Amino acid sequence: MRNEKILLVDDEQGILEIYEVxxxxxxxxxxxxxxxxxxxxxxxxxxxxxxxxxxxxxxDIEGFxxxxxxxxxxxxxxxxxxxxxxxxxxLTGLAIGGDDYITKPFNPLELMARINAQLRRHGIYVxxxxxxxxxxxxxxxxxxxxxxxxxxRGEDVHLTAKEFELLIFFCKYPNRIFTVxxxxxxxxxxxxxxxxxxxxxxxxxxxxxxxxxxxxxxxIINLKGIGYKFVPPTRGKIE
Length: 239
What we know:
The protein has 239 residues and is an alpha/beta fold. It has two domains: 2-129, Response regulator (Rossmann fold), CATH 3.40.50.2300; 133-230, Arc Repressor Mutant, subunit A (Orthogonal Bundle). The chain has helices at 13-25, 37-46, 63-70, 87-95, 108-127, 161-172, 180-187, 196-210, and strands at residues 2-9, 28-34, 51-54, 78-82, 100-103, 135-137, 141-144, 149-152, 155-156, 220-223, 227-230. Strands 2-1-3-4-5 form a five-stranded parallel sheet, with helices on both faces. Strands 6-7-8-9 form a four-stranded antiparallel sheet, with helices on one face. The chain has a two-stranded antiparallel ribbon with strand order 10-11. Strand 7 (141-144) and strand 8 (149-152) form a beta hairpin.
């Protein structure tokens, strides 16, 4: 029997029943269902979950917008399962905070594999020290959170407090896309109201200090119109 708690959000009762049957076959027992965004949000505020399976097309609020609201309460994995199959939809879902994206009609085996993978990663993050490092050693780039130290190819890199916080945040969530608003809310701990320039300016300054060529960055990548992601340098990559 699995102890993870899963929230299923879809306005089609038949789909919710399919999800539940698949999950119970895998041993999951703590399953909650919601048929609209308001119901889902109320459930998230009232209880803790380990995974949310979320449809995009809900009757009261778009799933992408709901995802943004959920991220104000929790960073647990969100798996989009939707009929919206365009590349733009998928990129949007991942950019606004989704952890995975699968389209309908789906292969039940693939869906369960993705759910299990997300829960496994989340479990390691919550319970395992290996996913909560205070030191990130990328070979040429070394970041020590507790010591407040960053070095590039053995030379100390002097960052401002906010540049350091921004780099630490990126190190915690490698290869994940964040919008400018999400970066501002998480690093500056405030809602973003016209502060796009603040984030862009700090990213520009950080790039100048950790990139070999800040005009052609390879570590902090900008996906035009979507957001930024941190691509950890492999050992020796920029040596």
